[in-house]
Prior knowledge:
Bound molecules: flavin-adenine dinucleotide
Number of helices: 17
Helix content: 25-40%
Oligomer: single chain
Mean pLDDT: 93
Strand content: 15-25%
CATH architecture of the domain at 13-212 and 359-417: 3-Layer(bba) Sandwich
Largest sheet: 7 strands, mixed
Distance between the termini: 54 Å
Radius of gyration: 23 Å
Amino acid sequence: MKEKPQSQQGQRKIFDVLVMGSGIAGLSYILELLQLKPSVKIALIAKKNLAESNSFYAQGGIAAALNNKAEIEKHFQDTLLAGAHLCNKKATLQILEKGHDAIETLIRQKVVFAQSEGHYSLAQEAGHSTRRIYNCEDHTGKTIITALIDTIKTYPQVTLFEYHTAIELITQNKLHKPGDSKEVIGAYILNESTGKIDTFLANAVILATGGAGKVYRYTTNPETATGDGIAMAYRAGARVGNLEFYQFHPTLLYHHHLNNFLISEALRGEGAYLLKPDTLQRFMHLYAPEKKELATRDIVAKAIFTEMEKSAHNFIYLDVRHINKDLLIQRFPTIYQTLLGLGIDFTQHLIPVVPAAHYLCGGVLTNVYGQTDLQRLYAIGETAFTGLHGANRLASNSLLEGVVTGKLTANQSLPSINTSLQLRYPIRDWDSQHVTDLRRASQINALWRGLRGEMTSYAGIVRTEAGLNDLLKLLYTRREMIEGYYRKHAVTRDVVELRNISLIAKLIVNSALFRKESRGSHYREDYPDTNSRIGDTILRGKDLQFNFQDQYEI
Ligand SMILES: Cc1cc2nc3c(=O)[nH]c(=O)nc-3n(C[C@H](O)[C@H](O)[C@H](O)COP(=O)(O)OP(=O)(O)OC[C@H]3O[C@@H](n4cnc5c(N)ncnc54)[C@H](O)[C@@H]3O)c2cc1C
């Protein structure tokens, strides 16, 4: 007789605020809210342990201009240039103006930035016209996140739910007042240790779930980055925007024992060479005769991709053997030790690298106060699309965005938090009646592998109309299979993630098809030029809208 899967219905939990995501954005939101409303009761949900996030792995630092108009203006201009003039100017200025405040906030939270002779050792990265990157050597994210988590843990108002995965937002229509939209009142959340799905209800719901690098085969992002917040918000009816702009980092370590380890571009800053995998010859002079290895991320990533295609290799090499050993080991201790653990002594061996999905410039459409189309729902950090990054993120602007939008959103969400939910009809707990089949791990794995490989080949660094259209057909079939699987099987984290990356993939491909130009991190071989008349790509439900900047009303 066929074994019947068990019911997954869990418990009901009620809080003032539900925060999904424990990266820099979620943690900054919570710490600010605790100052504004000390009596608040917060649920903090994280898919794995609290530290596991894109934020934790940030190496380079956090950009912030000195607190004067001229320096902020320079940072503003650098950001617009990197963003290929697609940034939302208003939002960009609102965020950059708060750079100094963000650094002071982190220092108050006991983050110790690198100093030398009594001054902060500000670094300069590609695209920045001056030194303005606060850093903790090559482990900035780890230092910041550890400090913030230590502080959060001292507050009894925050209940921590590690190894919990949000599956779907709970919404209700506000029908009786004209002009009122849908409101979000909670989420269904899978508790990995019990396998049950709990119903969380809250006056305010914060999406701080980070990016979606796992849509692609190679990514610098950890396992948790599957675009869940963006997928949930889209399914609930919120607009999302500019998802075609996925920034690729040129140099991820290519190694089967460690699949998301970033090799910082600061190594190229110190003089590292890129070599063809077959002939071991340098090649960047063919693509960027002046800057060579120091060209911008998009140019270097495209050059590496082209060389990989030409040689039919899955990687190319980074060579640092000619650089002073002591300098390398002192400046890049984490990279040195990690590679050594894999048997690669970079002072003697070549480092195999591959370009990898790194940062999603688009996301859930918001203003800098985290407001979305849906009442009581806020989105912050990499999940949100504020318009700061335009077509290409300026290095080290994303940690800054997380702190600033986290703090601003804390204040903005107070009215929601202070207004209790009026449930219009009984809220249903998770219903497992539809579950008929037992799990098939090999099928899930096959769908994961297939989808990510196809996205890399057809919607990665180089895109064409024909390739994107072919991919859409494949995705249509895959999505039908995945939705079918989701309906008939018990819900597990990998199935939730697979469902979400398949939706994000479809949205990326649709947006990339629509953008008939090349700009920033989006390169169309069939439309190699920039068309300055094209604005943002905004999607909601079945509609594909095309907007010009500064016209959104939230
Ligand atoms: C290797 C690397 C290096 C980087 N270096 C820099 C740098 O030097 N400077 C810079 O500015 N930026 C850098 N970035 C980018 C930057 O780290 C991220 O953009 C930023 O940290 C995003 O923060 P976040 O809080 O929005 O999301 P994240 O830090 O990614 O946090 C997401 C959180 O959401 C949780 N989550 C996700 N889905 C769910 C779900 N369904 N249910 C419950 N919880 C969920 C996760 O568990 C996690 O806690 C780097 C990124 C990477 C990957």
